Amino acid sequence: MSDGNVIDLQIARASTHYSIRIKKTIDLAMAWRMDHILVALSLSRGLPLSYVQRVERELKRFLVLRTILPNRDHGVSWPVDELWHMFLTYTRDYAMFCSSIGAGFIHHDPAPSSGVDLISSMAKYCNTMLDYKKIFGESAPDEIWKIEIYHVGGVSCS
Q1: Which are the contacts of 34, defined by CB distance < 8 A and separation ≥ 6?
Q2: Predicted confidence (pLDDT) per residue in 35-64, tens digit
Q3: Helices (H) and strands (E) in the chain, counts
Q4: 10 Å Cβ neighbour count for 15?
Q5: d(CA 106, CA 97)
Q6: How far does the chain reach from its first CA to its final CA, in angstroms?
Q7: On the CB side of 57, how many CA atoms lie within 13 Å of its CA?
Q8: Is pLDDT above 50 for 5?
Q9: pLDDT tens for each residue of 122-136
Q10: How far apart are CA 6 and CA 90, in angstroms?
Q11: Beta-carbon count within 10 A of 34 CB
């Protein structure tokens, strides 16, 4: 076996281990029950529960991205952020969720409001869209993730 093959085998093993870790993280996140939080958001915002349940899937996927790619900045859509805010108010549930998926505590950083920061926020949103497709094998659903500003200061998600 040449040195190249040994390195390739090491990369393959590391990649397989990483893929197993990602799948486990996704499975744990998706299995987490948060029905009481979904009902609370549905009632407080007057949103159909079926819609909030679709947002739940997207919040969990977003939090998975934040867990498996902790050094990469990710932006969030308004519907996902709304559910995230509600989840954060149930501090024990939220802390247990974060711990269960191996993330420690996933902090929420409010979106900036200045023009320069808007460009940074758009870049973070684009990171989310690109990583989402790589990790989950599909594009994020427009119903929950589409934003109206696609080109800000030369930043585009395409």
Answers
A1: 56, 87, 90, 93, 97
A2: 999 999 999 999 999 999 999 999 999 999
A3: 7, 2
A4: 10
A5: 10
A6: 42
A7: 12
A8: no
A9: 888 999 999 999 999
A10: 48
A11: 19
Checking if the pLDDT of 152 tops 70, the result is: no
Q: Considering the entire predicted model, what is its pTM? A: 0.83
Do residues 37 and 90 make contact, with C-beta atoms less than 8 angstroms apart? yes
Please report where in the chains the tokens 């993730």 appear, as a residue: 145
Among residues 137, 152, 33, 146, the alpha carbon closest in space to that of 79 is found at 146
| Beta carbons within 8 Å of 40's beta carbon, 6+ residues apart | 86
Inter-residue contact 155 to 147 (CB < 8 Å): no
Q: Is 81 exposed, middle or buried (0-12, 13-18, 19+ CB in 10 A)?
A: middle
